Amino acid sequence: MSILDTHYDKWSWDRVKRQFSQLVTLSIPIILQRLGIMTLGIVDTAMVGHYSTVEVGYQGIANSALASTLIIAFIGLLMGTMVLTSNAYGAKDYKKCGQIWRRSIPYSLVFGFLGFGICFFGEPILLFLGQTEDIARGGGEVIRVLSIGIPMTALMLCSQFFLEGINRPLPGMIFMFIANLLNIFLNWILVYGHFGFEPMGVIGSAWSTNIVRIFLAGSLLFYIVFFVDREKYGLFDKVDMSWNIWRKQRHIGYAAGFTNIVEHLGFAALYVFAGLLGVISLGAATIAFTVFGVPFMICYGVAGATSVRVGIALGRGDRHDMALAGLCGLAFNGMICLPLMSILHFAPDTIAGIFSEDTALVAATIPLIALSAWMLFLDTAQTVMGNALRGLQDIWVPAIFYVFCYSLIMIPLAYFLTFTLEHGAIGLIECIIVASFLSLTLLSSRFFYLTLIKKQPEDDRRYA
Q1: Residue boundaries of the structural domains of the chain
Q2: CB 252: neighbour CB atoms within 10 A?
Q3: How many CB atoms lie within 10 A of CB 119?
Q4: DSSP code of 93?
Q5: DSSP for 367-416?
Q6: Which residues of the chain fall short of a pLDDT of 70?
Q7: d(C-alpha 72, C-alpha 259), whole Å
Q8: How far, CA to CA in Å, does 95 sit from each of 146, 161, 311, 391, 424?
Q9: Where does residue 14 rank: exposed (0-12), middle (13-18), buried (19+ CB within 10 A)?
Q10: pLDDT digits (tens, 9 = 90+) for 427-461
Q11: How far is CA 379 from the centre of its chain?
C-alpha cells in the first residue's frame, strides 16, 4: 500500500483544490512582480542593443560577472526573512513576523553597502576573469555606476520578502509595474539623449536602473509603515537584536545565499566562456539568457509562492500539506512552462530581432534561444523544488546538491562542450540542461523524503 493510499483522507480532492487555488492566488502577483524584475533587464538590453552592439556586451558582462551576482547573493542571504515570516504567519504568530522584518532591515543594508564597495573593483575583477582590456574597461565602468543602487536593492528585497511571507504580494507587483514604466521613460531619455541630455548609451541605462531601485525600496517601505497593521505585526515594538536570537534567520540566509552564488557563478562562468568566443558570441549569449530569463522569472514566481505555501504548512505542523504544496508547485510550473517553451522553440528569429538589427548578432542568437526551450522546464522545476526545501528550512543538503550540479558538473562540461568539442555558444545551453536534470532529481528526492517518508513528529512547528 502506498503512502498516498495510507493517508487518503489527507489527500482528498477538496484539499488538493484548496492548496492549488491558494498557490495560484499567491503565485500570480509574485509571478508578475518577478516578471517585472526581468522586464527591467530586458528593456535595458533591448535599448542598449539598438544603441550599440558592443555596449550590450559591456552590459551583459557587468551584470553577469558582478552586479547581478551580488543581487542573487542578497536574494539568498535575505531568504530567511521570507521563510521564517511564512512559518510564523502559518502559526498565527503575527508579531514575530514584524520582528523578523525589523531585524532584516539593518542586516540587508550591511550587505548592500558591502556590495557597493566591491563594485568599485569591477574592472580588475573582469581582467582577472580573463576578459580583454576593452571588455573589462567598458564592463567595469557600468559596474561602478550600478554600485550606487545596490544598497537600495537589498532594502527592497527584505521588504518584498516580508510582504510575500504574510501573503500580501500585491503591493510589490503594483510598484514593479510603475517601476517598469519609469524605466522605459528613463532609458529613452538617458540612453538615446532626450530633453537636453546627451546620449549616454549603456551608462545612461545603468543610471536609470539606480533610480528605479531607489523608487522600489522607498515605495515598499512606505507601504509597510503606513498600510500594514502596525499593532497586529508589532512593526514598532521593541525588537531584541541579540545575535543568538535571530541565528536561524541568518543561517537560512547563509545557506540560501551560498546556493544562489554557486548557481549564479556557474552561469557567470558561461558568460566568461562566451566572452572568450568573441564579442558576437558574448552579445548573443547576453540576449539569449536575457530572453530565457523572462519565462524563467515567471516560473520563479511559482517557486517563491511554493516556498511560502510550504512554509505556512510547516508553521502549522502539517506534513501532508507541505508535500501537497510542493506537488502543486511542480504541477503549476509545468502548466506554465508548456506554452512558454513553444514560443521559445518556434519563434526564436522574431525574438532575436527585437534586441538587435545586427545581422551577425541575430544569426548567432537564434539557435541559442531555440535550444533554451528545452532547458526551461528542467531549470524551473529544480528551482521550485529548491524553494520548497527552503520553505522546510532544509538548507545545507540542497546547497551541497547545487555545488555538485552547477560547479563540479556544469562548468567543466561547459568548457568541454564549448571548446573541446567545438560546439561554440550552443555548448553553453547544453551544459545547463544536463546540470538542471541532475539538480531536479536530487532536490525532488530530498523534498519528498522529508515530507512523506522520514519519520518525525506530526506537530512539527519550526518558525522561531
Answers
A1: 16-453
A2: 23
A3: 22
A4: -
A5: HHHHHHHHHHHHHHHHHHHHHHHHHTT--HHHHHHHHIIIIIIHHHHHHI
A6: 1-11, 455-464
A7: 10
A8: 36, 16, 17, 20, 54
A9: exposed
A10: 999 999 999 999 999 999 999 999 888 766 554 55
A11: 12
